[in-house]
Design a protein that fits this description.
Blueprint (H helix, E strand, L loop, with lengths): L1 H19 L9 E10 L19 E5 L3 E12 L1 E13 L3 H7 L1 E8 L2 E2 L7 E2 L6 E8 L5 E2 L9 E10 L32 E9 L4 E3 L18 E2 L4 E2 L3 E3 L1 E3 L3 E8 L9 E11 L6 E9 L2 E6 L8 E2 L10 E8 L19 E8 L47 H9 L1 H17 L1
Antiparallel strand pairs: 1-2, 1-4, 3-10, 4-8, 5-6, 5-10, 7-8, 8-9, 11-12, 11-16, 11-18, 12-13, 13-14, 15-17, 17-23, 18-22, 19-20, 19-23, 21-22
Amino acid sequence: MKSKKTVLAFALLAALLMTFAPALPALAADYEAKLEGQLDTDVNPDVPEWGIGDLPGAVVSFNLGEEAVITMEFDAPVKFTGNWTGIATNVPVESDEDAEAVMGGITSFKVDGKEIGAFKVPLINRDNSGYLTIDIARQWGGEYDAFGLIDMEPFSKIEIGFALGMEINYGDDGGDPEPPPADEKPPIPAFDPNGTYGAFFGIQVNNIWHYRDEWAHETNGFGSENFGVIFDNENDGPAPGTVTDAVLAGNGTYRVGVKGLDISGGDVINLLYFSTDVPTAGEPLQITEMKVYYDGNWKYTFNEDEEMVPYVMGITGGEHKDYYQVYAIHAWNNDLKAGFFGQDMSVKDIELVFTVTGFAYDKAEEAAPPAEDEAPASDNAAPSPDAPADTGAAAGDDEDGGFPSWAIGLIIAGAAALIGVVIMIAAKKGKK
């Protein structure tokens, strides 16, 4: 009997301990971390654009409360695009606040053996995935780049030390990043209210990756062989579509667009916009209205009377831009992600008609934009002074008064004489 009572007592004691003992975090549990981000395949075409996490060295196991290091070496130099780079883990969290409460961050960051530093970085529940991510660099959703990764020269080896579940002593500066100085870029000229500028149609189609990058893009921007076309990334050449750009010469209404698209193989349009060479510093311009047309049919009007004014990156919101970029669709921005007029992958012709103010003079010939229920002028109609020619037109084929992309560059570069003529005409008109 005594032995049975003893066993029963131990059982009761064990039950009490299990009932009242505080729950302890599983600090010794194994977790996994993976370096993720977008690599620039123009710099190194032999690496996967979004598959860095599948390359040797990208994944490590770690314990909370202990430091771990991700080390990756490449046969040829690589460069991150800066679109987004981070360390994704399988540490469960329910919010950004939960992620920050875990504590930790980057303890060491080396490139080709050179120590960049150890900076405090955001710990987030990225895309509400339910798991903690260590943010390293991003351009979407607010620019952040603690280590200068976006502007860093191509490198062959990267070593990133990190720790979670512990407080990191960053020294007197508290871990505030002081990234290495990037290569100096030429200063951006101030906006000239008497000058002329360019507006350039832009698009990016998911899945088939047909796109036209912005005017200021480092590799595909103005002056590159790909800038005047819709580029087919998969086939490494032009895709169907003839682009129309515009010369901004005074306050007025302008239009940019594309004809003859074939994006039927895509699933969504990620980006629909126009870029410019107008600097955003000082916010010199206002885009007071922008209308969207698909195949000649009005789809949506962005203005103060609708859901929102035309969305200008760095001014209305979103990541900083040195030059105006005005969006109708932006898949990585909450305001424009769903789109206000749906997705139509059968569309062949797209036109953005927008109104600009902020110049010191008016457009030489002011023309009202088409009504919302009125299609833009057809190819057979008399050309509108607002409508530049298709950029894909043959050299010398400019009888319709349009401006191909290469011509816009020449016009902007030698604009002084043109401005004088425009102002003189406007002045004469004002005297009538």
